[in-house]
């Protein structure tokens, strides 16, 4: 009666966390460090723009975004990555990157690849929507472990040739959620060259790209353009959730080759919901402003430095290069999260809830993901409790 395609999906991470923790009393004042929901202030002009455009809730919005919004997105891509895209044919808006990442698989994954079931590769651990998209189109999701030994990025180049031959799509998140690792130019060049050789597309989830320390992370579309790769080789996904502290706006975009975008837009015209026009008006303004992004990044830099000071002597601690999570090494993530909750009231996410078991093991089992989204003061309290409880320092 019901389909079996999703029968092997585990419970989503946060219901699993509630099942693990909620039957126990917290051991102190509760500090939430589980969800990557930005808490910094969003730009002050957001309310003004929303109020000015409130009457446009009475209109059907364009599915692909207003011309002004697509133009501002294209201008941002040019400023950020030095890449020129046509706002008419190479950009569309989406309701946050999760919707875009799911529907891109629906629009772009072929029914077969070289006469076989297509494979969709993704890092492990990973953003769980990648797997659901693959299953929805009858492809095989292949979980490629991203561990300390691989720089916390998946070693796609090390996979067997027969697997690469039937690979249709590769999801890659850089900066990585949860580890904060960044794909450098050489990594992108290798992956894009493999895509050219084996004719697969790369879906680059770059929604953490504006939270970093040091140099700005290089972009997938940027490298593909410099290489002269097939214009359809790379599709990028961005949103205003992390960049601008507007997760509730549900405003993102997809950009890539014109044929890929034609297919994505065609699919969304039937199955996607357009952003309300007042949301699009706010987005137009936010993509055009960088001052608030610089300020936001400075707040995260303070918390990166705080984490380095608190955990600097912890064996295996990896300072994140970007994003806003810590990927803390522990013996067992579930045991550590439960101990932390019962003894201190700090709530964190076991790494295994973001990854899958493979023949080589579960790469998230020995980690905790800790979100650095609260105020500096609350973050310091939470990180200090984690250190004292789990590492005895």
Automatic annotation (TrEMBL):
<keyword id="KW-0808">Transferase</keyword>
<dbReference type="InterPro" id="IPR004839">
    <property type="entry name" value="Aminotransferase_I/II_large"/>
</dbReference>
<dbReference type="InterPro" id="IPR015422">
    <property type="entry name" value="PyrdxlP-dep_Trfase_small"/>
</dbReference>
<dbReference type="InterPro" id="IPR050881">
    <property type="entry name" value="LL-DAP_aminotransferase"/>
</dbReference>
<dbReference type="InterPro" id="IPR015424">
    <property type="entry name" value="PyrdxlP-dep_Trfase"/>
</dbReference>
<protein>
    <submittedName>
        <fullName>Aminotransferase class I/II-fold pyridoxal phosphate-dependent enzyme</fullName>
    </submittedName>
</protein>
<dbReference type="GO" id="GO:0008483">
    <property type="term" value="F:transaminase activity"/>
</dbReference>
<dbReference type="InterPro" id="IPR015421">
    <property type="entry name" value="PyrdxlP-dep_Trfase_major"/>
</dbReference>
<dbReference type="Pfam" id="PF00155">
    <property type="entry name" value="Aminotran_1_2"/>
</dbReference>
<keyword id="KW-0032">Aminotransferase</keyword>
<feature type="domain" description="Aminotransferase class I/classII large">
    <location>
        <begin position="30"/>
        <end position="386"/>
    </location>
</feature>
